[in-house]
Amino acid sequence: MLVSENQALRITYEAYSRFSNSLIRCRTFDDVAACFKVNLKYLFNFHVFRASYHRGSYYLHLTVTSGGANMQVQHEAGYLAHEEVLLEKGIPACWKELEPFLLPEEYKLPEDEQGELWGWLIRNDEKHQVLVSVLSGTSKLFTKKDITFLKLATENLKTKLLEICLFNELDEKNKYLKDALVTIHEKNTEITSIIEQQKEIIASRTKEIADKNEKLLQISVLNAHDVREPLTRIMGLMSLMEHYASSDDIKDKFLPKLKASSEDLDKALQHVISKATTDLLKLKA
Amino acid sequence: MKKIVLVDDMEISNFIISTMIENIYPGYVVHDFTNPVQAFSSLNIIEPDAILLDLNMPEMDGWAFLDSMQSRNMSYQVHILTSSTSELDRRRSLTYSNVISYQSKPLDEKELVKILQ
């Protein structure tokens, strides 16, 4: 008996080793389901094996039957009634009364199978836990001896699901980053073109201002000469009066000329003022 | 006794200079013109010893006057007498071989003596 038990154990270990090797290579949830479909039946007997894992906004439900294996990935919790009980109580259970759970179609067994539902909540912490349950019957008998391999398989599953979830999250973040990078590049191009445009505008404005300044300078020089001309007349007349003129001369000859020259000076100044004002208004426009 | 030609579109300017000359050199003959074209066409009749020429004039400015003289090979001595104090004008005027001096208005009596002696 002991010999055959050891033999059975050795065979199971071999099966477990194949299962582990196969699971390590899985990259997607579908890969995991396929691995369980092929390998799980060599570790222990079951009618239905179900494992539920939760991370972030994702709820994963792996269901394995003799007909196949299926991984549901969804945003709603979608726990079965017995899983709710396991979650709440947190202790392993083995139910023989299955009616109250209103289990789905694949859990239906013939009367004489005497179905048993085993369940565990395997958790490291709040965020990292797996609900696992096994439906067995007389033709697919599950015993306490099988719990070791079930827990080993479940631990492996939990690690693998976490790994795939992290990969997926990384992919999503990478995609987000790539999008961000594209946006940054687009904005950079836009900014560069805006800067180029600004440079052109600044260059043309600077030239415009330099031109205007030069023009104003020329005008101011011209204006200064126009103003100076009647002024030199006044100065000339004054010095003539000092040296040579009699009071009769001053009254008859010089005063009218001084008056005319003063008026010319006034005109020239008014012209300068109105010209400068116009130029200033043009500059502001 | 010298013959002097004054060319300035402002009559008062000519009055000032001619009065000054009259006082310093009563024997000098002064011909004053407010119209540069007339002045130019009278040059060969008068044959002046000196011309006092304004730069900024309508119709024919001082530069055109100098250019016309150059093109007719007239070598009458010219003194520029202008209200402009521009260094550019001064340099330009001295490129004409018959321009003797460049004077800014108002003209000082000493300067006038110097250029008409």
TrEMBL record, chain A:
Transmembrane segments: none
CDD domains: HisKA
Catalytic activity field: ATP + protein L-histidine = ADP + protein N-phospho-L-histidine
E.C. number(s) listed in UniProt: 2.7.13.3
SUPFAM superfamilies (UniProt xref): Homodimeric domain of signal transducing histidine kinase
Annotated protein name in UniProt: histidine kinase
Species the sequence originates in: Pontibacter silvestris
TrEMBL record, chain B:
Gene3D superfamilies referenced in this protein's UniProt entry, alphabetically: 3.40.50.2300
Modified residues (4-aspartylphosphate): D54
Annotated coiled-coil segments of the chain: none
Keyword Phosphoprotein: yes
PROSITE patterns on file: RESPONSE_REGULATORY
InterPro entries: Bact_response_regulator, CheY-like_superfamily, Sig_transdc_resp-reg_receiver
Keywords noted in UniProt: Phosphoprotein
Domain Response regulatory: 3-117
Pfam family, one: Response_reg
PANTHER family: RESPONSE REGULATORY DOMAIN-CONTAINING PROTEIN (PTHR44591:SF3), STRESS RESPONSE REGULATOR PROTEIN 1 (PTHR44591)
Protein name: Response regulator
